[in-house]
Design a protein that fits this description.
The chain is built from 1 helix and 4 strands. The protein has about 60 residues and is mainly beta. Strand 1 and strand 2 form a beta hairpin.
Length: about 60
């Protein structure tokens, strides 16, 4: 499943792992995406939605 919100288009961001040894490796910060059944134009549809949109009430479940 792609880590992209269907409502706000939130995507993964990238950064670095910085352990104590200072060996830098790339890492990925994924948004908290939930697969929910939402009502779109009167019909239920499965969507990938981030928890920020769920808490803000941007999705009618």
């Amino acid at each position: 499943m792609a880590a992209v919100c269907d409502i706000c288009d939130k995507k993964p961001t990238f950064g670095n792992n910085r352990p104590w040894s200072r060996k830098i490796t790339k890492r990925r910060f994924n948004p908290n995406i939930q697969r929910v059944r939402a009502v779109v134009n009167g019909t239920p549809k499965r969507m990938n939605v981030c928890t920020g949109c769920l808490k803000a009430g941007k999705v009618s479940r």
